[in-house]
Amino acid sequence: MTTVELEARVAGAGDAVGAAPVAVGTAGSTSAGAKSVGSKSAGASDAGAAVRRRPGRPRDEDMDGQIVAATLEIIDAGEDVTVSRVVARSGVSRAALYRRWPSLTTLIAAALDVGRTIPPEYPGHVDLREALFDGFGLGDTGVALSVAASGYAEERFRQRIRLVMSDRALQKAYWQSHVSRRRVPLLNALRAGISRGELRADLDVEACFDAIAGTAYYQIVVRGDRMDDPAVAARLRAAVETIWRGMVA
Length: 249
Hints:
Elements: H1 3-12, H2 31-34, H3 47-52, H4 59-76, H5 83-90, H6 94-100, H7 104-112, H8 128-135, H9 154-165, H10 168-195, H11 205-222, H12 230-247
């Protein structure tokens, strides 16, 4: 498997190691996230967005990008995400924001997914044990790939964890619209392994994925370790090896 292919896998299945946003604000306030974006009156024009729009690009696409980028800037600054702040930073009107996102929760979920991709399906001949290790960023070197290798800087990744853990609605929205989709290729590969008789017929592939992902989260959230620490990688590899022995037919 090439380095490019490996990074593609890590960007998707590896979100088991990195899927978690903050309350809608770092101070633990969740009221902004639960509030509908359309709950306020909309009267401003889209003049600001027109001024900032780059030539040659469709207006809607450009405006969506401005809004999402502004939301990420607010998150990275450790500030509460509010309609007023998004409007001020993006230069779009409230009306434009209301038309595109029904709530701040869905907007934040979309912003947190920037830089993440859905990995391609695994080929039928893939080595499933290797796919598990590579999918969670554990290559033959024994060193886990850093969070940055999967599209996120370490600090933004930890900010995601703070956000989702303090806002259940955001956590659910992010899971349903983004994270759950990136699990699909690896889950499909495991299901194919069951059909070929390589894995146990009674295997619960969702539970296996969660068990491995949970091990990775424990290192980051509970132990406070870094994923690119060789000692952490060794623990993760040992855990995956143990889980793998229980998966094979």
